[in-house]
Amino acid sequence: MILVIADDLTGAAEIAGIGLRYGLKVRVCTEINQEATEDLLVISADTRSLTKNQAITKIEYLIQTSQQYKPSLIYKKIDSVLRGHVLAEIKEIQHSLGQKNCLIIPTNPSMGRRIQDGKYYIGDKLAHETAFAHDPEFPIQDSEVMNMLRAKPTDKVQILAQPVLPLQGTIIAEVSQKEDLLKWVTHSAQIDLLVGGAEFFASILSNLGYNLVEKTFSPQHTAQKCLYVSGTTFSDSVEKIQNHANQQGGVCYLPKEPTTQPVDSEEFNQSLNRWASNIIQCFSQHQVVVMAIEKQLDTTKISPAGLAKLMAKVVKKVLNQVHLEEILIEGGATSAAILAEIPLQNFLPTEEFAQGVIRMQSLERPSTYLTLKPGSYAWPPAVTYAQL
């Protein structure tokens, strides 16, 4: 078994999709599962939404309890733009397993995410010049990779453009194109801990001898109800939903009241019930209903985690009243909060529509399928319900 520990749910789903791409039997879990026997087990640790100390504790627990699987490979999936407690989680894994060296390749060159001359680029822009500068939890304000990692001299991290043998310590590889990935992956057997994004993991599977399989999609039904949950603040998604609301309706925005009221107050519960009722009523007129955060709404009085939990509570209320065969969710923190609230913990991925856009069947609710994607990715045409 190959074990992957991801720092959020959409990252876990992205890795699962790559496993499907290479013909592996895959399971995604949000907790350690005693029954897992698949070729690839991906655990969403959801550590990006935790404090640094909480993240370290969670990683320690997962590493210790996952040894029952006797994994042939442990891969640490991190955010492609290095958000989260990256070095702290790496150090905990190395400490727990007695590992000495580590190779980090977070970039996805096919999506224009690259490291060059010690700086992180997204397309032609430096990372801090993009929408990531406004991330609610880990805003990128400096594109120097060492600063993005919050690395200290004592961390002994080095950035290398070329493999320098023997590979020692913690190395961040400069990768701008697929050929760079292939160059580094040939040395992966010499590395104790492999850390990075989706495309590095795909290169590792290829290097291990796995072959790509033909991509197939399940037929999409037109009569079913679909809830589209947008927990992201990325401008492209926000504007698309706003245009759809203006032209066709079917969008139920988060009202102001829950973001300003105490979460244990009667007013808070009443405002959530009203929002849920609006969404349920909307299904009488629309096949696809969108719940989202309006651009103009002031959310400064509520934490990102609190906002995600608020949306999750409403999704649960809707599910109790409406049978949903399809749920689309964008945003890793939102996805994790929803699944914790319902709760759902075990999934079998069924389709990889595009990199990072994965459809999964819930084992706890087999008639419900969830399609997840990171907030910064686009919905591909194959996900018909997302074409607002």
UniProtKB/TrEMBL annotation:
Transmembrane regions: none
Q: Which InterPro entries match?
A: 4-carb_acid_sugar_kinase_N (IPR010737), 4-carb_acid_sugar_kinase_N_sf (IPR037051), NBD_C (IPR031475), NBD_C_sf (IPR042213)
Instruction: Please state every residue range assigned to the domain named Four-carbon acid sugar kinase nucleotide binding.
Output: 264-376
Is tRNA-binding one of the keywords? no
Q: Which UniProt keywords apply?
A: ATP-binding, Carbohydrate metabolism, Kinase, Nucleotide-binding, Transferase
Pfam families in the record: NBD_C, SBD_N
Its family remark reads: Belongs to the four-carbon acid sugar kinase family.
Q: What's the protein called, per UniProt? A: Four-carbon acid sugar kinase family protein
**Organism name:** Flectobacillus rivi
UniProt lineage? Bacteria, Pseudomonadati, Bacteroidota, Cytophagia, Cytophagales
